[in-house]
Design brief:
5 helices, globular
Length: about 140
């Protein structure tokens, strides 16, 4: 996961996406949001019915990539308001939230937090999600 995060250092603030309408700053702030969810700073509900959790977990743990133009249940189809003054500030925010994620699971190794699509995930499953999610967005900006 950290090697993927390092690739964001090669992303320019004005890069054009290969698909979708996110700007680089929107994408980084979107990733920040997922980290906040993954360590419980933001609580969300899962849109997936409970009986489909095991199927969703299989998909998450597979090598199958996330689909292009996937509509996120939390953010929807519209670009959200930017939270940070600059792209660099967003990258720093991401770094801070990755550290918060790591600290949370050091202090709470058995914690489970809800992912809006994949349901309840433990630390290892969240790492798999973040890896898959980061790869998806790196591909979006031709960095993977």
């Amino acid at each position: 996961m950290h090697k993927l995060l390092e690739k964001l250092n090669n992303l320019k603030h004005d890069a054009e996406p290969a698909w979708g309408k996110m700007t680089p700053q929107h994408m980084v702030e979107h990733i920040v949001l997922t980290f906040q969810i993954s360590y419980g700073k933001i609580k969300v509900e899962c849109i997936t019915p409970t009986e489909k959790f095991s199927l969703m977990k299989k998909i998450l743990l597979s090598s199958r990539p996330l689909p292009k133009n996937f509509v996120n249940a939390v953010t929807g189809t519209e670009l959200g308001k930017l939270e940070n003054a600059s792209f660099q500030d967003s990258l720093m925010s991401l770094k801070n939230h990755v550290e918060s994620f790591e600290n949370y699971y050091k202090q709470n190794p058995n914690a489970v937090e809800i992912n809006p699509t994949f349901g309840p995930l433990n630390r290892e499953e969240w790492i798999q999600f973040h890896t898959k999610h980061l790869t998806h967005h790196l591909l979006q900006f031709n960095l993977e």
